């Protein structure tokens, strides 16, 4: 008994000692951080001077400069390895800068980033989405103004304007990609189907595929974002382009419009029911990976998705990837001329205004904005870069889209979403009630309007 | 007096050992609770550096928020079914594994094993089971099943199955310990008096097991009222809010809708609910306990 007591006490003491060590360690870390910060700011200051003196300070300002580490948090966790390679390339060229990369799953990204920022943790460089999220962080005073920086000239002026917040650029456009429908060329050929250019044609094709005993659409709607991604594009596309409700989301933000006023809300719900009907079995039980699997195995004929699953499909079914799959714009309406290719910005880069290593952080951005960085991005992440002149050759299936790129038949439905209200998640949950007949479309529209008015007074 | 002071001096030393625990409790429980209470009176969005106090508005809104009531309803539905199922099943297993079963230690280990796996991992395993494993398994017998997690009518029950599978271990151990604490002669004399197996269980075992029942009921009920991780990794409240429990709802409000102040107010309300439930439950079950 005594022995046990002694053991217990020892363990207790040990924990006390350890926890004391822990807190001390933390303090030390903080002190060091502070000290380092101090010296680094001066270092950055001198570098700054050097930079303004010699206009092109892309070369390392001097090998004797103290090495710095910048933290880089991003939400492209699906291409973690690819980004690690790009960072390696950057580090090889800038031996004095180490980049501490922190990939985070998109679903948790903003929560984590906000928590870190609010907790005083400084992330030097991080990815953001243009629009509401950027505005939020700008309002919080966390974003460095990038307007007019040298490297920003590597981007198209339109793109910069599109991603500007209050007329200024706080984020640097990084990558973009089409979101469209992958299709299985073999299934289409066997059934004699053409690429559908209107919504009705799409559904007619789906009916034929279903009649032939195949699954028309691979849906991974267990993951909320897959449904949300579709829904937050179908609705604004129809609202603005078909129903001409150009200021709908402005009004929604101000509380002057309701979902009930917008006919495209009903259109979207009807479309969702169609997709659900023509989807794989267990639509809400299969997740994104399951859906990609269905498509890769050739069990499903179509899949509405960005370019992310390409690498996965290549691994799972190289034959399909190389020659048997195509890509066509999602026809959200029955007016062929409106059904352009959805082309969306994805991640953009921001520099923390409170960063202690701004110089290094900006150098990192400059690298990502260079042709070299852009090409590295395309090669390693399989998505398209906004940097002028980078290649677009990321997969055979994307060749189908070349005419749309060449003719400029692109649009970005996300630019219509001029609201900070995050209605997508709420709506994708509500629309599931309609699938299972626990509510009518009118009921859920009313629920959505109630939710908006309750949450945004 | 002298002796008292001496004892005091000698025993004071042990107070020192309370310090780490007290320290942890203060900084991990008390401080967050107090700051949380403070935030609940603000319209803080979770990120900005200034706070605006809005009085009791958050609480008034919360009481009128039908979504909160739906979430509370789901939470209690989940917790009550869980409490009953976990306790009945773990008591049954305990009775079985307390008797002279061959290889009972092996079985005890096996039934306890799921409790060792992390909840996140369990969530992934069962998501896979439901959406891939079971459909393929049953397809081999010509049956067509789909994941219960994909259907709003069954999703909550799908989660309960997972939680029961994982949660049965610890209460089972407590029940086994309780059963082993019951003197054999009591059961024996009941037998001599002519009581059958069920009668003996009902009138001897069960009353003497009451302390174990109290603690198990309490632990499973409060534990499942506070469920978050399992729901978050498997369904995240879906489909169509059918598994939206209070914790996921608060989390979404605070972090996805940028209403940390409002989320805090709802947590505070839930905190009060939890305290009331616990006090009521303990006082009811305590009355039924008997001493040896």
From TrEMBL, chain A:
Chain spans, region Disordered: 26-63
UniProt biased composition (Low complexity): 38-55
InterPro entries: Bact_solute-bd_prot1, SBP, SBP_1_CS
Compositionally biased residues, Gly residues: 26-37
Keywords: Cell membrane, Lipoprotein, Membrane, Palmitate, Signal, Transport
Keyword Lipoprotein among record annotations: yes
Signal peptide coordinates: 1-22
PANTHER family hit by this protein: ARABINOSE-BINDING PROTEIN-RELATED (PTHR43649), POLYGALACTURONAN_RHAMNOGALACTURONAN-BINDING PROTEIN YTCQ (PTHR43649:SF33)
Family, per entry: Belongs to the bacterial solute-binding protein 1 family.
Protein name according to UniProt: Extracellular solute-binding protein
Organism in which the protein naturally occurs: Paenibacillus glycinis
UniProtKB/TrEMBL annotation, chain B:
Sequence ranges assigned to domain ABC transmembrane type-1 in this UniProt record: 72-281
Membrane topology: Multi-pass membrane protein
InterPro entries: ABC_transporter_permease, MetI-like, MetI-like_sf
CDD domains the record matches: TM_PBP2 (cd06261)
Subcellular location: Cell membrane
SUPFAM superfamilies assigned: MetI-like
Keywords: Cell membrane, Membrane, Transmembrane, Transmembrane helix, Transport
Record family assignment: Belongs to the binding-protein-dependent transport system permease family.
Protein name: ABC transporter permease subunit
Originating species: Paenibacillus glycinis
């Amino acid at each position: 008994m005594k022995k046990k007591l002694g053991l217990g006490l020892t363990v207790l003491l040990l924990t006390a000692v350890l926890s004391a060590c822990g807190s001390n360690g933390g303090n030390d870390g903080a002190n060091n951080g502070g000290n380092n910060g101090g010296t680094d700011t001066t270092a950055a200051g001198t570098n700054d001077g050097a930079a303004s003196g010699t206009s092109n300070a892309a070369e390392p300002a001097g090998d004797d400069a103290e090495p710095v580490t910048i933290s880089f948090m991003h939400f492209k966790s699906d291409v973690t390895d690819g980004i690690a390679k790009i960072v390696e390339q950057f580090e090889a060229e800038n031996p004095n800068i180490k980049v501490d990369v922190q990939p985070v799953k998109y679903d948790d990204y903003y929560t984590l980033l906000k928590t870190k920022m609010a907790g005083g943790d400084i992330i030097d460089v991080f990815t953001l989405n243009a629009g509401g999220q950027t505005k939020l962080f700008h309002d919080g005073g966390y974003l460095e103004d990038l307007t007019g920086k040298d490297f920003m000239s590597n981007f198209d002026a339109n793109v910069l304007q599109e991603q500007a917040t209050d007329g200024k650029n706080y984020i640097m456009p990084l990558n973009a990609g089409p979101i469209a429908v992958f299709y299985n060329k073999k299934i289409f050929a066997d059934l004699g189907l053409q690429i559908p250019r209107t919504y009705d044609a799409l559904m007619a094709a789906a009916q034929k595929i279903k009649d032939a005993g195949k699954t028309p659409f691979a849906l991974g709607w267990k993951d909320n974002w897959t449904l949300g991604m579709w829904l937050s594009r179908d609705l604004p596309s129809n609202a603005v382009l078909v129903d001409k409700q150009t200021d709908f989301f402005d009004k929604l933000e101000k509380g002057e419009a309701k979902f009930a006023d917008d006919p495209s809300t009903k259109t979207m719900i009807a479309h969702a029911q169609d997709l659900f009907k023509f989807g794989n079995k267990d639509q809400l039980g299969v997740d994104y990976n399951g859906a990609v699997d269905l498509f890769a195995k050739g069990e499903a004929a179509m899949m509405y998705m960005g370019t992310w699953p390409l690498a996965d499909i290549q691994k799972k079914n190289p034959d399909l990837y190389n020659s048997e799959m195509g890509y066509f714009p999602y026809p959200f309406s029955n007016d062929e001329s409106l059904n352009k290719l959805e082309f969306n910005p994805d991640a953009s880069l921001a520099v923390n205004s409170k960063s202690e290593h701004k110089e290094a952080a900006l150098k990192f951005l400059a690298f990502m904005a260079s042709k070299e960085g852009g090409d590295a991005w395309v090669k390693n992440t399989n998505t398209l870069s906004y940097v002028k002149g980078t290649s677009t050759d990321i997969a055979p299936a994307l060749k189908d889209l070349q005419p749309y790129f060449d003719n400029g038949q692109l649009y970005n439905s996300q630019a219509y979403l001029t609201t900070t209200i995050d209605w997508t998640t709420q709506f994708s949950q509500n629309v599931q009630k309609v699938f299972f007949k626990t509510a009518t479309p009118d009921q859920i529209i009313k629920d959505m309007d109630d939710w908006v008015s309750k949450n945004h007074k | 007096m002298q002796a008292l002071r001496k004892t005091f001096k000698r025993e004071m030393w042990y107070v020192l050992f309370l310090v780490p625990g007290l320290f942890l409790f203060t900084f991990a429980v008390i401080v967050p609770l107090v700051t949380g209470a403070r935030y609940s009176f603000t319209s803080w969005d979770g990120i900005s550096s200034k706070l605006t106090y809005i009085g009791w508005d958050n609480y008034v809104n919360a009481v009128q928020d039908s979504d909160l009531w739906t979430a509370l309803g789901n939470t209690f539905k989940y917790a009550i079914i869980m409490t009953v199922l976990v306790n009945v099943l773990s008591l049954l297993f305990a009775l079985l594994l307390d008797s002279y079963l061959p290889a009972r230690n092996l079985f005890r280990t096996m039934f306890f094993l799921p409790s060792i796996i992390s909840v996140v991992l369990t969530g992934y395993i069962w998501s896979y089971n439901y959406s891939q494993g079971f459909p393929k398994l049953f397809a081999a017998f010509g049956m067509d099943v789909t994941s219960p997690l994909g259907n709003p009518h069954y999703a909550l029950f799908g989660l309960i199955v997972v939680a029961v599978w994982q949660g049965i271990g610890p209460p089972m151990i407590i029940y086994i310990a309780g059963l082993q604490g019951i003197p054999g002669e009591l059961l024996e004399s009941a037998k001599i008096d002519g009581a059958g197996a069920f009668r003996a269980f009902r009138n001897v075992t069960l009353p003497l097991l009451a302390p174990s029942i109290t603690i198990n009921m309490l632990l499973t009920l409060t534990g499942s009222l506070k469920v978050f991780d399992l729901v978050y990794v498997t369904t995240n409240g879906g489909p169509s809010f059918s598994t939206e429990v209070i914790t996921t709802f608060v989390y979404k409000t605070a972090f996805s809708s940028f209403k940390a102040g409002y989320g805090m107010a709802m947590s505070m309300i839930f905190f009060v609910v939890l305290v009331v439930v616990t006090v009521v439950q303990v006082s009811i079950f305590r009355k039924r306990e008997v001493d040896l």
